[in-house]
User: Fold this.
Amino acid sequence: MPIPIHASLPITSPAIPQIPTPTARPASVPGSFGELFRSSIQQVQGFQQSAHQQVEQFLSGETEDLHKVALATQQAELSFDLFLQVRNKVVQAYQEVMRMQI
Amino acid sequence: MSLFSALSVSASGMSAQRARAELLVENLANSETTRTPEGGPYRRKDAVFATEAQPSQFASMFQDELGTGVNISEVVEDTREPDRRYLPGHPDADAQGYVAFPRINPAEDMVDLMGASRGYQANVAAIGAVKDMINRSIDLLR
Amino acid sequence: MLDPISNRLERYMDLLSSRQKLVASNIANADTPGYRTRDIDFHFEFMTQLEGSDNPNVIEAQGLKVKNDGNNVSMDRETRLLAENAIRFNAAASLLKSEIRVLRSAIQEGKQ
Assistant:
């Protein structure tokens, strides 16, 4: 005896788990890695901006405190270098994880 | 805008001051000279400074006029009457017993000499500072 | 390629070079009769930056005592300016080097 197929029965596919797309915003999750990265980029940019500001002030004669300008510049440089090194380590770690045989 | 023209400006300053010093030394050495090949006593010599446009080595027609060097435009001799002193026994005494001496005040020329030396050193300092700036520019490449 | 602050630094160094040349001229002509001290209005020239203008306006320095022969060069002033220009030039050169260094390390780290 054929099983009557009721039109009212909705045809659904079995549930497929949703893979979060990469374009989703991981940074919205507080304390997540993306958030950490973003805040450190902002910090480096902040140092660089303040260093440029100091340099501009020195050039236009507003300030004669060369030591302040020098320190701000070095701080920007150092924070940038640190950022690059951290980034390198992160990329290294990521590559290692990807190489892992599951 | 090149700093190299500043070097030649300072070099011209050094030459001028040295020439001036040489004349002053000559004056001092001859402050009592009563006979010269031209006849008559030694006449004091003075250097006249004048500005000079500096063509730098790679000068083009539109080169900057920022650097003006200096040179000795002429050497003038003292045209005043010589100093006559009464020394009848002197070999160069004239009929009345007067000897013509150069009108030189050694103290004045000594002070001038110190001025020339100071000017020379200032030009040397300028060369040092400019040379340092040029080297720092080269340093940007490292 | 370098950021705007580097252009400002370059302009600063250009003007300092010009000023130093004038200082050298003043020192060389410290005993020239009738010579007047030459200078540039540094702050004005720096703030009104025009692209590609190589020659700043040369002006006569004000407020200097004129000697009997018409010369008004003050050796104290020129010596002070000589030192100051050199120091500022060196400072600007070092700051420019720092900018270049940051850019260079970014390029080099990117190679990995």
